[in-house]
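Design a sequence for this backbone.
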């Protein structure tokens, strides 16, 4: 089941992300939030080969939940799909470059 989530930072940055795919397309389209040095927060299709930024096509993207763009967190993940997960707090904000980006709980779920 896929979901749409909001992300925000105290600096004023906010966005929405799509996580995972629906029943019909999860094998070909399963986005997960990544950080691209050029574009910032992007939804990267984890089923693509190669995995790349959908905006600039750079393959230099890092999935949220991985160092150095997310701090270790043993609590419940803020975002999760397949084997990927990122903490709710302690993530790199693409605007202010602080570890203050927060993944909000899912607002919409789809299948």
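Sequence:
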């Amino acid at each position: 089941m896929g979901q749409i989530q909001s992300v925000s930072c105290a600096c004023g940055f906010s966005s929405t992300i799509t996580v995972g795919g629906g029943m019909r397309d999860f094998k070909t389209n399963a986005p997960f939030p990544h950080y691209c040095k050029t574009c910032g927060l992007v939804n990267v299709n984890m089923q693509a080969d190669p995995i790349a930024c959908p905006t600039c096509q750079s393959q230099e993207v890092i999935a949220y939940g991985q160092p150095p763009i997310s701090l270790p967190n043993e609590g419940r993940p803020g975002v999760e799909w397949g084997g990927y997960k990122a903490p709710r707090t302690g993530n790199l904000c693409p605007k202010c470059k602080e570890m203050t980006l927060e993944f909000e709980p899912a607002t919409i779920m789809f299948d």
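The mean pLDDT is 90.
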